[in-house]
Structures are given as C-alpha cells and as structure tokens.
Amino acid sequence: MRILVTGGSGRIGRYVVQELVKAGHDVTSIDLFPDADSPCRTLRVDVTEAGEVYQALASARAEAVVHLAAWANAGMVPDTRTYGENVQGTFNIFQACADLGIKRIIYASSAQVYGLARAPPVYVPVDEDHPLRPANCYALSKMAGEQAADYFITRWGLTILSFRFMGIRTPVELNAGIDRMMRDPRNGARLLWTLTDVRDAALACRLAIEAENVASGPYNITGSHIVLSEPTSELIKQYFGEQTEIRDALPNHVSPMSCTRAKEAFGYQPRFSWSVSQRYLK
C-alpha cells in the first residue's frame, strides 16, 4: 500500500516509517526537517500550507495517511501557534484526503484530552467514553482535530482513527521514566503509571492501516501494564481515593488505561513490556 506519513522524522514518526517499510509498504515521509537517513522517500513539507499538502499527497499517490505532524506538547512555541498550527495542519490533511479520494487516515491525538495532569480520572479503566477535560492548548488542539475528524467522517465518508497515545517513550528513554516513577509514584499518576514503547505505537499504526474493516473514532493506544511493582488497584486507591470510581477489576499490574477497543478493532496488543523488573529489556 502507498502510505504517506506526516511528521515522519519525528519521535514517533521515524518508528512508524520503519514499521511500515519493514512490512513492505511504499512509504513517503514528509516533515519540516526530513531525516537524511530515512529508509523511504522524504519531502520537506509544511502541513500548515495547504498547497504543499496537496502536492505531497498527489506526488506520493497515497492510498492512506498516518498524520503525526504537530507541535508535540504545550510550551514548545507560544500557545497561539500550538493550537492554531496543529488545527490548521490537521484540517489541511483531512480536506486534501477528502478531495483526492484518500479514505483511510490515522490521526495522532493524545490521552491528554482526558485531563489527567490536572485531575484524577472520573473512573477506571479509562476508556474512550471518559469525559474530555483538556488542560492546555495542546490537548485542546487534539480535541479540535478529533472534532474535525468527525466532520470528515460524516460529510465525506472518510475512515479516520484518532489514536489517543499516552506515555510514549523510545527504548532509551524508558528506564529514566521508570526511575522517576519509582522515586515518587505521584510523578506517574498523570500517566496512570503506564509507559508505552514507541515501537508499539508504530505497530498500532500499521495494524490499523492494514485492517480491512475498521470503525472510525477514538482509540486509546498505550502499554498493557503499569511499570511499578505495586498492584494497580492499590495505586488508584492511594493516589486518587474516592475521586475515582473503580468500575472493573484491575488485577495485578494491568494498566488503568483500557486499550480493549483497539485490540478488538485491529488486534493491537503491545509487544514490549516495561516494568521495574524488566526495566533493562531491549
């Protein structure tokens, strides 16, 4: 399949490109700062410029898109740019795909839409129906992207899967993330003590692109287990207390973030498990 990856030289994008190329897909990567060592064709493209987006998609003869290009968090640039450019770039991608007949899109949203940095979850496991409570301009831009997706799904018949990524780390970053949570578990509460190997994020993108019949909508994408040695339910009770309703059992070290929808829709199941006991797994 011919697939265009936006932000293909970024932190997640380069792993998505590698995963797709390894699976035999014809991949084109676009980025403001293309990776010279990319295993696929690369183009320098600003997704906030609609003309550049149309030309890149046409040149790649894309059949599907993985849209990762964005300011990756609040505070990297002024808030007006974070929100404005993330929303503009996403709309440009969706509109160009609609006009060019590209029906399958993976859109990188974020679990930050749940607002866990500001308040405990309303309930656990956190599924895709959990209330959205954006706490910064980045999360707000991702919510706007999901709303735009709903419009293009309804108006243009596109299939758009919004991936609510959480706790994504590269393999070399994971040990440091575990160390930080071990020193003070409160540091991991906003991530529900769950980290996600970026290679699993890439796997999710490939599986969703390749699935023959998959429904549009939001999907949580994260690790399957917490990284600490304490049982999940004990951490929930200790750090969230009565503010969080425990709706279903969380046996042993199962993550409080549910990826059941992604597993049922396109078979997502993390390949890499990171925890205190497995911290040096490569």
Give an overview in words:
With 282 residues, the chain is an alpha/beta fold. The chain has a single domain (2-168, 197-222, 256-266), classed as Rossmann fold, CATH 3.40.50. The chain has helices at 13-22, 50-60, 79-100, 137-156, 171-183, 198-210, 232-239, 260-266, and strands spanning 2-6, 26-31, 41-44, 64-67, 104-110, 123-124, 159-165, 168-169, 196-197, 217-221, 245-246. α1 (13-22) links the parallel β1 (2-6) and β2 (26-31). The radius of gyration is 18 Å and the shape is globular. The mean pLDDT is 95.
**Overall pLDDT metric:** 95
Report the count of strand segments.
11
Q: State the domain count.
A: 1
- Rounded to an integer in angstroms, the radius of gyration calculated over CA atoms is 18 Å
Shape call:
globular
Compile the SSE list and pairings:
Elements: E1 2-6, H1 13-22, E2 26-31, E3 41-44, H2 50-60, E4 64-67, H3 79-100, E5 104-110, E6 123-124, H4 137-156, E7 159-165, E8 168-169, H5 171-183, E9 196-197, H6 198-210, E10 217-221, H7 232-239, E11 245-246, H8 260-266
Condensed summary:
With 282 residues, this protein is α/β, with parallel strands linked by helices. Helices cover 37% and strands 16% of the residues. A seven-stranded parallel beta sheet has the order 3-2-1-4-5-7-10, with helices on both faces.
Any descriptors?
282 residues; alpha/beta; Rossmann fold; 7-stranded parallel β-sheet; two-stranded parallel ribbon; 37% helix
